[in-house]
Request: fold
Amino acid sequence: MSGIRLLVGTRKGAFIFTADGRRADWKISGPHFAGWEIYHLKGSPVDPNRLYASQSTSWFGQLIQRSDDGGETWQPLGKDFTYDGTPGTHQWYDGTQHPWEFKRVWHLEPSLTDRETVYAGVEDAALFRSNDGAQNWQELPGLRAAKGKLWQPGAGGMCLHTILLDPIDPARIFVAISAAGAFRSDDSGETFRPINRGLISPYELPDPTAEVGHCVHRLARHPSKPDVLFMQKHWDVMRSDNGGDLWSEVSGDLPSDFGFPIDVHAHEPETIYVVPIKSDSEHFPPEGKLRVYRSRTGGNQWEALTKGLPQSNCYVNVLRDAMSVDTLDKCGIYFGTTGGQVYASADAGDSWNAIARDLPAVLSVEAQTLP
Amino acid sequence: MIRVILPAHLRTLANVRDEVRFEVAAPVTQSSLLDALENAYPVLRGTIREQGTRRRRTLVRFFANGEDVSHLAPEIPVADEVARGLEPFVIIGAMAGG
Reply:
């Protein structure tokens, strides 16, 4: 029987959850790297037992860990994320220019086809690639050449948090940065261009339709439809049907269109999930009710999924990398909260169970479907 | 024999339980001591000093012979007691928490 492995990064370590295909009984191991912030863990699609973890603290900096046995043992590897050439400057909160400074790795994205290749999205925003299993890292500087001087940090820092690799066209890479926007490469990361047409940010930008500067919180897409992208922006849920060339709003009847994660059902490319949050100054669910919203129409029409989720006095947040789906039938969906809960649904979101309640604040959740 | 006391997180990372000891050629400076430490425990590179600039990380401090030596120039010789192994060179994470 297939199984599920959940990789959960928290403020104080990593946890690995495992269950068989029924997804009813979960075993939890951890904390791995106790006391360290684990912004993200992810497994290689080529070799699911190869896992990567981003481990950091403000005190002792960044480490990258790799496991080749599904998280049983770990090996610290390359952590030198030196920007290519002279790093230059970007826009600071007050509009002045500020030097580019590496702070941490937010997201690790292993190649879809090559076991040794993995990408890292970092703060201050840049994209790095390793071709030797995370031992050595090289920046792809074409990204910061896409008007990097105009990028600015969001409240969480100027982070590159989303990397989407194209299962059909290996030369195509999408990335998203807070607060710079979404970018696309069509030449394997040599060059990038902004893909933010249609985004409107009247509360955040002096020019609401600026080419860069939008606070994109997350991108998602279904592998069978690589040109159809979904976006949770600071405010607004958006979709593009042409690889990001043009975006349109699909927030529809959501109770709030602010939020962080967005994800797509594993088998239904037009079924998407978001977690509405009240506002940018009140990072908790509207009315104190934790509700996942599902659209089966690719946006605009949404239904609240509440069965098993707290519907009173709930004031947690769900961060951008803290939602994931498995590929079993029915599709499983998982998310973690800043309150340390991890919720799982084995029926595409119709009902939920808390499979952990008292972890440190959850930063990321990745589901692996194991043979 | 130089003695170095690491903070808990770095002891875990270096897989050591107690203070670490190693030889450093005279004259022993903060810089040569940290170079030797990183050579003995490569996993510590970047955790005490920044990658590239090799400057002390902002939230790391150094103590030797009961004094805060975090802000001394890296090429100044360490205290004689530290160089002779009578006192440890102490690396700590800056105070944080309640």
User: Anything to note?
Assistant: Chain A touches chain B through 15 residues (CB under 8 Å). Chain A has no helices and 30 strands.
